[in-house]
What does this fold into?
Amino acid sequence: MTAPDRYANVRYLVDDVQTAVDFYTTHLGFTLNTSAAPAFADVVRGPLRLLLSGPASSGARATPDDATTPGGNRIHLVVDDLDAEIHRLTSAGVSFRSDVVAGPGGRQILLTDPAGNLIELFQSAQ
It folds into this structure.
């Protein structure tokens, strides 16, 4: 088993690996770690390693047919200024899947990557 001080890994199934890499590195501050496009690439942001698996990847092939579409799960990215991030991403042509929702813990908004996987931007109330 990998040491617990390494990355937390999340796999997202994507239609187009290079499009996904471009989205995460251009808009959300990830850096490319490795690429075997068009099958697979992984991008990193802090302790999160996001595995981007295209249709030809072993990760995608291992997925049962009834679980190939994006679900309600999402990665959760903490930001310092949610309004500034919304403005920056909207200016870059990124669209959102929800309005800003506020609660006792903070504020959040949802967007999707080009394959439809959910991403939550969150600003703490602290």
About this structure: Residues 8-124 form a domain with the 2,3-Dihydroxybiphenyl 1,2-Dioxygenase; domain 1 fold (CATH 3.10.180.10). Residues 17-27 form the longest helix (11 residues). The chain has one domain: 8-124.
